[in-house]
Amino acid sequence: MCGIVGYLGVEDAREIIISGLKRLEYRGYDSAGIALRKCDSGTFHIYKDKGRVARLEEIADFSFKTCLGIGHTRWATHGVPNKVNSHPHQSEKSRFFIVHNGVIDNYKELKSEILNGNKFVSDTDSEVIAHIIEKYSDEMSVNEAIRKTMSLLEGSYALAIIDTYNRDKIYACKNKSPLLLGLSDKGTIISSDVMALVGYSTKYVPLKDKTFVEITKKGYKTLDIIGKEVEHEVKVIDVDYFNIEKGEYSHFMLKEISEQPSVIRTIISKYFDKEEVTLNGDISKAIKESDRLYIIAAGTSMNAGFIGKELFEKMAFIPTEVHIASEFAYNMPLLSKKPLFIFISQSGETADLRAVLVNIKAAGYRSLTITNVKTSTLAREADHYVEIHAGPEIAVASTKAYTAQIVVLAILAYGQSDKHINLRKELSKVAISIENIIDKREYIEALVQEYLTKRNCFYIGRGIDYYACLESSLKLKEISYIQTEGFAAGELKHGTIALIEEDTPVIAIISQRSIGKNTRSNLNEVQSRGAKTLVISTNSVHEHGDQIVLDDVYELFSPLLTIIPAQFIAYYAALQRGYDIDKPRNLAKSVTVE
Ligand code: M6R
User: Which atom of ligand 1 sits closest to the CA of residue 591?
Assistant: First the structure.
């Protein structure tokens, strides 16, 4: 994971790098660091520490002008988050400074085979890279030394490199981890994401894997690993992408929960012409020609995938499987004859998904990515992509991307169905019903105070409600740290019911007529064992005493509603405990390591 930013130009490097890193904190925020060149003397200075990027503002010397630098915000993989393990790392003789995003799988072998005898100060895999570059730069040009190092590294990397002997240049290279160049007439920015370019560049160059870049005041040169110049496309940044302020809201998560009705309306405006769906015909064709869909995803996106399975199977009668990306990558099941792979990823950068995409592409299978970031790796590398138009999602806990993914999946499934519902009308109804829930959020806040009093909690449901429980429990656990599981209601009695004790909170989701009664029996079972139960139901299946009753919508769309109180439950549980809601511990928004 981690975010990197580098800058060379006539503006203040320190300001551009620190503000860029703040925007990249979604990639990791357990430590941060920066290396800067003083404009007048040309000396280099490193500031780094455990903690958020804001810490750099406390420790960095602001008294001198800077025109070149590299910075890093970390999500620890190798070595605990502390000052020594923070980036930038230096080579043994301190000639090179590097910041790294990714994981070097063979760093131990490189240490013993190439760097035997070198002294390392950190526990990271990254430090090795700086040492190897320095070793080879004794025998060849820096340009060659970095490319030779690239050829030895196994794993993923995006690197920004300073050579203190070449004070007017920055080098960069990448493989698997994202990296791009932001361009302006005042300088060049290196960044993991366009987010860091806000206010400085309007154009950018996404870099291909195994690319090496040399940046000077005059511009940049991109080479492949053997030193041949390679062309890269220059793209214009989508200004909508920069709508990333909290505004009147106390947290991005609250803002993003509240944006869900407008996100649904945006998706309708993008994919409908009057009542008709207007999706790229090639995508419909790819779905139609396949005999089975394989949804590959992780976390919240996988939970959206489960709802997608229901939609494809029940609306369009297409057999659909949902797979955990990190499992599928190394344990592929037997496939059908004509599979279509659907990758669902808010960020479009999740490394576990990319590992699968690389494999299935090599095997000649077709792929479609559903993502919020059309410039992302998974969007670029799949045969097709569909954008979910949720707008930037900043809070680590995914909310509006989940509902947007489901809406897009519904549109895709509907395209293959007998069109027995008026989709546009049904989705518009959902948007209004979500607004009704948002209006009642203070009531949900009070319920949280009353019911979520323990260290643990269960969500139970059946069928599509069970899938909604999986996402509801993920939301609650990731930001409130309450140990929560989403359970198939009928399965509880086969073991897990042993965990129910006096006042254990059990939240049931009941939106389906056919199975509501069964879930209620399971609720009785836990109540008899002391559980404190809370029911989220829809109007037509509700019973007296249910605490949260939602509007009726088309049955397969109920997860778009039942998740909203669950998002608020998570939000208020975290708020009442005083936790950092937008940046929960140990997590990062974009998971770019396997
Ligand atoms: O960017 P992606 O959708 O591929 O990310 C997948 C998961 O890491 C992500 O959904 C994660 O589970 C969320 N933070 C949960 O809120």
Answer: 8
